[in-house]
Write a structure and sequence with these properties.
Layout lengths: L1 H59 L5 H8 L2 H11 L11 H8 L24 E12 L2 E10 L4 E12 L2 E9 L2
Antiparallel strand pairs: 1-2, 2-3, 3-4
Amino acid sequence: MKKLIIVSLFVMAGCKEEKKKDAVIQQEPLSKAIAAAENKSNESEEAKKWLGKSIKNYFKEDLGSLDKEMQKITTQEYYEYKTDAMNVDMDVDGSLTLKEFQDKWKGKFDTGKAGINSGFLISGQDWMNIEVRNCDLKSSSDNNYVFNVVLADDGFKAKYFRQIKVIKTDNKFLIADVLEEE
C-alpha cells in the first residue's frame, strides 16, 4: 500500500511539472506576438508621420518641381498610373482614352477612384495652403498601411477625403495608391 501511495505521489508531481513547462512554452509565443504588435504599431506611426511630412513638403514645392517630388514619394507603378489618370483624353503624347486607361490598370488599381483629369492628392488645380487635417490608420498588413486622410485648403474652402496606401520597401515609405472619395 505504501508503494502505491509513493508511486501516486511521483505521478502527480510529474504531471504538475509538465503543466509548468507547458505554461512557459505558451508564454513565449505570446510575448513574441506582443513584441511584433508593438513593432507594427511603431512602424505604422512612422508611416503616418512620413505621410504627413511628405504631403506638406509636396505642396510647398514650386510648380515646376511637383512632378519630381511626386516621383520621390510614390512607387514607380503608382506614379505611372496617376500620370495616365491625369492625362486621360488630353491632347498630349501618350494620353489614353478612358477605356484604354481602365483596361490598362483594371487589375492593379480601382480605376473608378483614380482622380481622372485631376491632380495628385487633390482635385483642385490651384491651392493656397494644403494641410493634413486627419490621418488615421484604417488597416495594416505586412509592410502596407492604409490611412484615411482629410486634406484641407481653407483659402479655397475645400476638403479632400482620401484613402492613401503607404508601403515600406527598401527601408523607406512610398505612396502606393490614393483612392479619391469624391
